[in-house]
Every structure is written in C-alpha cells, then in structure tokens.
Amino acid sequence: MNLSAAFHTIRLTLAGMKQRGWGRIINVSSIYGQRGAANRAGYVTTKTALIGLTRAIALEVVNTGVTCNAVCPGTVDVPMHQGTNLAGKQPTGRLIPTDDVAALMVFLCGPSSNDINGAIFPIDGGWSVS
C-alpha cells in the first residue's frame, strides 16, 4: 500500500495536472527510503521505491508546471511513537513534530517551489547523515 496508493493516485491525476499546466505531487517516503533497517525489508523496499517513483515522475513532468518531490520523515510525534527510544537514530533525541512535516509540504505546494522538482527532503533530526 505504501507504493501502490501513490502510484495509482499519480496515474489517475497526472494527465489533468499536465493539462492544467500546474500541479504538485508530494510522496511521503521515510528515513527508511534512504537507509536500510534489519527486519523491515518490505517497508524499506516500498519507501525506497517511492523515491524512485518521485524521480521518474519528476523527469516526466519537466516543463509542464507540475512538480514531484518526496519528504522522508524520521520518527514523527504521533501517538504510536510516544515513548520510542531514539538512541542511535535521530541525533536530536526528539520526535519530529507533525507540524514541521506539514509546513514542509505546504512550502512545496507554494509558488516558491516552482523549480524544486525531483528533490528528496529528509526531515529526520539528522538521522540520515549520522
């Protein structure tokens, strides 16, 4: 579902975006799209595939007014992650606020992001570089 939902949504909406000459596609990958993890092969595979899908679509939409980017959150501050041990993961030692992820997505939908296409944005407290 991580990959198929994004794939089919893009498949069903991309032609209309191109026809209108504007659109924003933001795929939600994960830190695990950029790093492997033991015992999470299925999740890592789908989140990595979302990054590949993002890059492929970004090339397809060049010069159409449509952009395609991906955000890659670390461990986000949602109820299921309360009390999660972040040792050895997010160097900040804190959960990623959902509002921060949303703010990045809002920016990517705005006019200042017209030339941001095919980018992969980690929002992971430094996990991807540690």
Summarize the structure.
The protein has 130 residues and is of the alpha/beta class. It is built from three helices and three strands, in the order αβαβαβ. The chain has a three-stranded parallel sheet with strand order 1-2-3, sandwiched between helices.
List the keywords.
130 residues; alpha/beta; Rossmann fold; 3-stranded parallel sheet; 3 helices
Helical residues, percent: 25-40%
How far do the termini sit from each other? 29 Å
Helix and strand composition category:
alpha/beta
* Strand arrangement, major sheet: 1-2-3
CATH topology name, in short, is Rossmann fold
The largest sheet, given as strand count, sense and whether it forms a barrel, is: 3 strands, parallel
Helical region count?
3
Please give the CATH class: Alpha Beta
CATH architecture name = 3-Layer(aba) Sandwich
Strand fraction band? 5-15%
Ranges with pLDDT <50 over ≥5 residues?
none
Query: What is the number of E strands?
Result: 3
Q: What is the CA-atom radius of gyration, in angstroms?
A: 15 Å
Shape: globular
CATH superfamily: NAD(P)-binding Rossmann-like Domain
Task: Give the H and E element order.
Answer: HEHEHE
Number of domains: 1
